[in-house]
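Notes on consecutive records. When two proteins share a document, each keeps its own sequence and its own C-alpha cell line. Never mix them. Below: protein one.
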Amino acid sequence: MTNVLKKGLLTGLGIGLAVGDTVGAVVGAGLGYAVDKLSDNDVNNNNISTILFVGMTVALAKIDDNFDEREEEKILEDIKALEDRALYELVYSKYIEYKNTDNLNVIELAKEYDSKVTYDKEDREFIYEYLFQLACIDDNFDEKEQNILKELLQILRLNEDLYNKMSKKYIPEPIVPTQSLEELIGLNSVKQNINDIINAIKIEKLRGGKAIAGHYIFQGNPGTGKTTVARILGAKFKELGLLSKGHFVEVKREDLVGEYIGHTAIKTKEILEKSLGGILFIDEVYTLSTGGETDFGKEAINAIVPFIEDNRDKFIVIIAGYTNEMNDFLDTNPGLKSRFNNTINFEDYTSEEMFEIFTLITKDFKYDTQTAEKIKNHFKYLEDTKDQNFGNARDVRKTFEAIKKNQINRLIQYPDIKEQDERLYIFEEADIQF
C-alpha cells in the first residue's frame, strides 16, 4: 500500500492538499492517486472499485443533466494524469460510457459500491473528498448537491463531521469587510492608490477595453492594515466584476511549504486552486526565500509564478511584508517583478492616529481628560522612539490590554463591585502604567 501511495502522490495531478491527516493526503494527488489506490484493491474484484468511483464522479457532475465545463475539465485532467496505460484506457472508457448514460444516479452507485467493495475507511474518505471537491468547483454548491453529499456520508458509513470538515476546506467564504476604505483611520496614501486603481478600471470598462485587476505588493511595517485593505480591495474587485467569487484566502509560509520533496508543490497548488475567483494574500512572503538552497520554500515560489501567468485574469495575488525584505524577495526569482507590478506602501500611524484607533477599540469604556492625556503621551513616546519592531495598531491593542489588566487588578480590590457596575467600564489615571 505504501508504494501505491507514493506513486499516486507523485503522479496524480489533482488539487488536494497532502496534510497530516488521511483525508487530506489521499485526495492530494487527485483522481490519479485515487485510481492507483483503488486498483490495489481491485486485483480480486474485476476493477469494481475503480469503475464505480468513476461512475460516482460523472453522476455527481451530471446532476440535472448539466455537465459543468469546469467539472468535466477537472475529471479529464486527472484521467490524463494516469501513467499506467491499461488503467487509463479502463478509466477513460468508463468515463465516456457513464457520460453517455441517462439517469445516472450517484446515490445508487454509492450503494452498489458499499455492497460490493470491502469496507476501507481511507478509501471511502478520499472518494468522498474528491466528490465534495468536484461539487464545489463550479462555484455553485447548491442545495441538491449538499443533500446528496450528506446522504453519501450514511451510505459510505463515514463520520458525520466529515461534511463540516470538507465545507471549511472547499466552500470559500465571501469577503465581507467590516469597514469601507474611507472609514479606515490614516493610510491616506494607501487610500489614494486604491482609488486610483479603481478609477482606472472603471474608465477602462467604460471605454470597452479589458480591465485587469493585476497583482499587488503591500509593503510596510506590521499593524498598518494590510490585511484589512486586501479584503476591501477584494470586495471592490468583486463589485466591478473582476472576481467571480470574491473570497479571501490568507496564508503564510507554513501553509505552502511541505515536509518532503514533492509535498510543497501539492500544498501550494491546492492553495492556488482554492484562491481562483478571489484574493490570495501571502503574508511575510519573503520567508519562502530565506531558508537556503535546499529549502522547500523556493519550490513554492517556482509553483506560484507560472500559476499566476496561466491564470492571470482568474484571481488576484497580494504579497505582503516589510519593505526591505520585500525588495530582496523580488530579486530571488526573475519572474516575480513582472507579475507584481503594483506596489502600495503602507506608512506608519502617527501618535494622533494611534489614539484615534484606541478610542475606536475602547468605545465601551470611559476615561477623563487627564487619563486621555497620559495615553496620548504614551503613543507619542512610541512614535518618537520607534524602531524596526514598531507595531502600529498592534501596539495600540497591546496598550489597551495593558490598561485593562491594570484596571482589573484595581477593581478586584473593591468589595462592593457588582455586575453592571459602571466602574467596570471606567479607566482611571492610575491604570496607565508603562
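Protein two starts on the next line and is unrelated to protein one.
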Amino acid sequence: MIRLFRDWKSLCLALFTVLIFACATLPGAREDGFVSLFDGQSLKGWALVAPQGGGYGVTNGVLYCAKGGGGNLLTEREYADFILRLEFKLEAGGNNGIAIRSPMEGGSLAYTGMELQILDNDAPKYAKLQPAQYHGSVYGIWPAERGALRPIGEWNKQEVTVSGRNIRVVLNGRQILNANLNAVTDINTLLKHPGLLREKGHIGLLGHNDYVEFRNIRIKELPRANLNNIPPDGFVRLFNGENLDGWKGLLARPNDNPTNRVRLTPAQLATEQAKADKRMRASWKVVKAELAFDGKGDSLATARDYADYELLVDWKIEPKGDSGIYLRGNPQVQIWDPRDGGTNAVVGSGGLYNNKVHASTPLRRADLLTGEWNRFRILMLGDRVHIFLNGELVVNNTPLENYWQPDQPLPATGSIELQNHGNNLWFRNLYIREIPRD
C-alpha cells in the first residue's frame, strides 16, 4: 500500500507539472492583470485610419499588415500607463511601428503621438538611418540598443512599459530602451514632437507597406494616482495650496505693461507693488486648496520670471466666464465659455488670442462644461508654444507674439499671470518644469 501511495503521489505530481508547463507555454497564456487586445479572429476593438492598399487583416490567428498596405490601426480605447506585450515577425527589410498615447488620426503618429519603431535593423537599405530610427527606439527622440532581434522569419517577443514619462522596452528578454522623456531638452525635438506631452492615447500598429505579422497582443493597465497639489515627477508647485507664497499682484494700468514697469524707479516700483499686493490679498483667496478669485481685483502674477518650461494649470469658470494665462508677461492663452453664444462659441479655449500674424484660434474645441475643471498643458520654448486642453492638442508649435512691443521679439523671460476679466475664477494644480537652454 505504501508503495502504491508513493506511486500515486508521484504520478499526480508529474501530471501537475506537465499541466503547468503546458499552460505557461501556450500562446496567449493567462497572465495576471493582462487582457487581450487581439482575439485571434478579427479586428474587433481596433479602428483603421487612413488605410493603404490591403490595410490589415487576420489569418490563422495572426494579425498582419498587408504587403503594399498599412495605415494606422489603432485601439478603440485609450490608455495612459500600461505594460504591453506582443509578438511580431518580420520579413527582410520589414518596417512597422507601435503607436503609444496616440490621437485617433492618420498621418505620421511619431509626432502628434509617439512611435516605437519596428524594423529589420540589418537590412542594407537602413544602414544610414539615425540612431533613433532603429528598432525599439522612440522614433526620432530616443535611440534603442541594437542586437536583440531574432533572425528574419522568427517570432520576437517584446514588452513595452509606459509609466508617466518613462518608457521601457524589453526585446527577447533584453532591455533595449529605458527612456525618461523629461530628459529630452533639445528645443527642435520638443517642438517637432508635441506627442511627447500626451498623458494618454491609443495604442496602434503603423504600417509602412511591408508585410509584418503580430500575435498574442495583450495589455495590463497600471494605476495612476492623480492627487491635488502633488506635482508629477520633474515638476514643482507654483501654488502650494495653502497661501499666496510665490505670487504677487499685477501692477495697475499702465504699469501692467512690462515696458512701463522697467521705467519706474526702485522706490516707485516698491510703492506700486505694495498697492498691487494689497488688492491681491483682497480678491485672491485660498479656499479648499484652490485659488479663488472674486472678480473684483486685478490679475495675479508669479513673483519670479521664467524662460522655457512646461506648465500645468487646472482652471474652472462660470457661464460666460472669461480669463487667460499670460506667458512671459504677454497675453495670452485664452480661457472663456465656448457655449455663451458669442463669437468664441466656435473656437473654444486655448488659442493665442492676441496674435495678429500667426494663428490665434485653437485647432479644435476641447472645453468641458462650465463649472467643471479643465486642464492646460503648455510648453513654452523660445517664442513657440504647444498647448493641450483636456488632453487634446489645440496649439501646435505656434509663435506667441509680443503684444506690448509688436515689432520686437518675445522677451526671453517673464512672469506667468492669471488674468482678471471681472469674473469669478478658480485655479488649482499649478505645476512647472523648467527646461534648461542648451
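For the record: The chain is about 15% helix and 35% strand.
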